[in-house]
Design a protein that fits this description.
By secondary structure, the protein is an all-alpha fold. The chain has one domain (2-78). Helices cover 84% and strands 0% of the residues. The chain has 4 helices and no strands. The protein is globular and about 35 Å long. 16% of the residues are buried. Keywords: Membrane, Transmembrane, Transmembrane helix.
Length: 79
């Protein structure tokens, strides 16, 4: 549980402080490593609300999260 909370805090701080070429990969890596990281979609909406890119980031985050659901178990076996 502490890993999930720490991951959420790292992603949130990176969204608020770091440039987009750093916080977007951090968000997608967190989505790949943390199981059922549905907060990533909320963070994508936060990005869109702060920086005004529309809802494209949130839609991409949702699509990547759906694609990663079946692949996540296979990826964790090698890590």
């Amino acid at each position: 549980m502490i890993h999930r909370t720490l991951g959420i805090m790292i992603v949130l701080v990176s969204i608020l402080v770091l440039p987009y070429w750093i916080y977007l990969p951090v968000l997608f890596i967190a989505m790949a490593l943390i199981s059922f990281f549905w907060e990533g979609i909320l963070f994508a909406f936060l990005i869109d609300a702060i920086y005004g890119n529309g809802i494209t980031t949130a839609v991409v985050a949702l699509i990547i999260l759906i694609i990663l659901l079946p692949l996540r178990d296979r990826l964790r076996m090698y890590v």
